[in-house]
Design goal:
Shape: globular
Mean pLDDT: 83
Number of helices: 1
Strand order of the largest sheet: 1-2
Largest sheet: 2 strands, parallel
Number of domains: 1
Radius of gyration: 13 Å
Length: 66
């Protein structure tokens, strides 16, 4: 049986003060779900890590409706 998880970590907002920890916390949860829960995880906002070609949650990336 397939298990899916959508993990959203938002640090940056247009009209609010930027936060420090949500994206890092969301990435930690995503890694735990993949490793121990065997989930297929979709990360938002997603960025590709240039060093090891993995997808992670972008700490400086804005989320928009478009």
């Amino acid at each position: 049986m397939s298990r899916d998880a959508l993990v959203v970590g938002i640090n940056m907002y247009d009209r609010l003060k930027c936060l420090n920890a949500p994206a890092a916390d969301a990435e930690a949860i995503a890694q735990i779900l993949q490793q121990y829960g065997e989930f297929r995880v979709t990360r938002l906002p997603a960025v590709k890590d240039k060093e090891n070609e993995t997808i992670r949650i972008g700490k400086q990336t804005k989320v928009s409706l478009t």
